[in-house]
Design goal:
Length: 300
């Protein structure tokens, strides 16, 4: 009797495992296929791409689409500025958010409720684009690199995420550090920051992706400054250029048009160019990112 129950349980476990494996396989394919399809089209000859039917491997392999992208003037300048704004913006954003979060987590900070309420209001109330544009202009940040970093230096969401993580740490750690003669900055730098790596990694990924993908601020404030252009803004102009050229050549043979400007293939190549850097960074932050994303879901 016991053997029959064990055998039944064993078969049910095997069926469950099979269902789980099938579900994971389907989700993996559904996740990877769009990216592999875009990658294949980006490396496929533009004339051949108009035939369709490309799956995960290019039929006619070529680097011409990427050569078209990198042939545009200003692209390398845009890449440099995008890297700089991503690195500087992420570092300064982390420092600012973590310092403010540490301050708000202190029970001896008398204005913590007032500041927290003010920060929370900024998540729901905004002045809008036009007042913000006027503010940037009056602060003389138009045509400067600072417009990429300073306006988004502190985010209420980032502050609250880090503060929630700090609140989960034993306050006795700070008291012990004080007894050892540590001041507030030493506690923040040598005690709090090393223990908040999961939250910091999560926020760092959010900040880096946001800075890397940003282009609208370049369009508004530095559109006429060739030396301050960003990669996303330059690639946006590439898309507009290829689309415009395609519209201008509508009366001609489609094969000839695609062979010359290949808007669809260029778009796919652009997608790969802007995606790969984040894909390279993510594995290094993944273990912290998962833990940071589950912050607050379980309370001891």
């Amino acid at each position: 009797m016991l053997n029959n129950k064990l055998a039944a349980a064993s078969w049910s476990d095997r069926i469950f495992d099979l269902v789980v494996y099938v579900a994971i396989t389907v989700v993996t394919i559904a996740t990877l296929y769009p990216f592999l399809n875009v990658l294949a089209i980006s490396f496929n000859d533009s004339t051949d791409s108009i035939k369709g039917g490309i799956t995960v491997f290019p039929r006619v392999f070529t680097f011409k689409n990427y050569e078209t992208i990198f042939a545009y003037s200003g692209l390398m300048t845009g890449l440099k500025i995008s890297v700089l704004r991503t690195v500087i913006g992420t570092i300064l954003g982390l420092v600012s958010a973590s310092m403010l979060a540490f301050t708000l987590s202190r029970v001896d900070f008398q204005a913590r409720k007032l500041v927290s309420t003010f920060l929370a209001l900024t998540m729901y109330v905004s002045g809008g684009l036009i007042p913000f544009y006027i503010l940037i202009k009056n602060l003389h940040m138009m045509g400067t690199f600072s417009v990429y970093v300073l306006p988004g230096l502190v985010s209420a969401f980032n502050v609250f995420v880090i503060r929630s993580f700090i609140d989960g740490l034993p306050y006795a750690l700070q008291e012990s550090a004080k007894l050892d003669g540590a001041n507030d900055f030493t506690i923040y730098w040598r005690v709090i920051l090393p223990l908040t790596k999961p939250a910091l990694a999560t926020i760092a990924l959010f900040l880096a992706v946001g800075q890397w993908n940003a282009w609208f601020d370049t369009y508004l404030y530095n559109g006429s400054k060739d030396g301050l252009t960003t990669l996303q803004f330059e690639l946006m102009k590439v898309i507009q250029s290829t689309t415009t050229n395609a519209d201008n050549f509508r009366g001609r043979n489609m094969t000839e048009v695609m062979a010359q400007i290949s808007p669809e293939s260029v778009k796919m190549a652009i997608t790969i160019v802007v995606t790969v850097p984040i894909l390279v960074i993510y594995p290094f932050l993944q273990r912290y990112f998962v833990k940071g994303m589950t912050l607050g879901s379980v309370k001891s």
